[in-house]
Hints:
With 472 residues, the chain is of the alpha/beta class.
Amino acid sequence: xxxxxxxxxxxxxxxxxxxxxxxxxxxxxxxxxxxxxxxxxxxxxxxxxxxxxxxxxxxxxxxxxxxxxxxxxxxxxxxxxxxxxxxxxxxxxxxxxxxxxxxxxxxxxxxxxxxxxxxxxxxxxxxxxxxxxxxxxxxxxxxxxxxxxxxxxxxxxxxxxxxxxxxxxxxxxxxxxxxxxxxxxxxxxxxxxxxxxxxxxxxxxxxxxxxxxxxxxxxxxxxxxxxxxxxxxxxxxxxxxxxxxxxxxxxxxxxxxxxxxxxxxxxxxxxxxxxxxxxxxxxxxxxxxxxxxxxxxxxxxxxxxxxxxxxxxxxxxxxxxxxxxxxxxxxxxxxxxxxxxxxxxxxxxxxxxxxxxxxxxxxxxxxxxxxxxxxxxxxxxxxxxxxxxxxxxxxxxxxxxxxxxxxxxxxxxxxxxxxxxxxxxxxxxxxxxxxxxxxxxxxxxxxxxxxxxxxxxxxxxxxxxxxxxxxx
Length: 472
């Protein structure tokens, strides 16, 4: 999912995008007659609202907690040492106040914090990192048994002096939000408490946070794959006759049905309300509002699911058949096939090792070799008869838009990060293909599914989008 604001990058110029793609329009009230019709269909079971009670409930809270404990233990054991050592950090200090939660709060185990608390990770040699929670408590935090010590109040300066770190990383970052949880007042308090000597050793934890959050373990990948499977199944059901009745169902109806599915399962939403939109010869026409779905519409869903603190970003699409049609029109199908070709180029090209910016240049070269033209400014379509392409293969997993290396111009800082094995990516692309059936106007086809990058390349975590769905 592309964000509302783009930055002009070295590889491609980007401007602010149409808000329709992320932010739903305020719902429009359709006519009373249409609402009566829709309500009657729901009551008769024609629409999918009546099927919600049959959906599986969330698994027990303890099961989820146990799985998150395992993920946290694996991350502390397998990912944290290299995240600190590769970035020259021998102490990482995350400060927490009551009701002021650092973005790392969930990753580090939560817990109750009174006036102030600290999660402190110190490299004292060996094959692991010392983990201590000071001023944080609670049965769930302690029960995970991933910290060496969980203390009440303890003098922070004496604790640090005993370990005498050379570089103390704290969560301050200009561009990576997950690494910017320390407020100005908390920073001032920290500096005062530890004194000028240790304060002079403070550095940004930006790369520590990025490497820790984007370095996925097997236990985390299992959860992420499950989240992806849930994401695509709900999206595919949403864009089917199970939910959509042409001439009756609105875009907003579909979006709320999806939100109901999340609520039933106790799942989060990566981007709040799902973007359910219609694209046509003039681009995006409407998003998640009261627009009634009609025959001939090309429907797209852009959304993500949160499960066990992993977060997805997925797209799916369907075509609403006109009377007498039995398949997707040729012009739209050709456009979709072109998008699949671009995705295959991306899948074959991305490898760990280079920076995301270097990989962007490689991808642009391979896509041009494939006979496509890279679009200069997102959503600015030209009438040149060529297939235009834009890519935004961003970090994903720790959030819908993640903290790791990002092959996307809207993450300029993360473009400088190196791609590492087992980094998760959203393989996102847009392809615009001239359509004779639309008078030569270009069909905008977005594809997006989540994957990991290994030494073998891009590896999918669940069945990716291979076709345009049909709504009869």
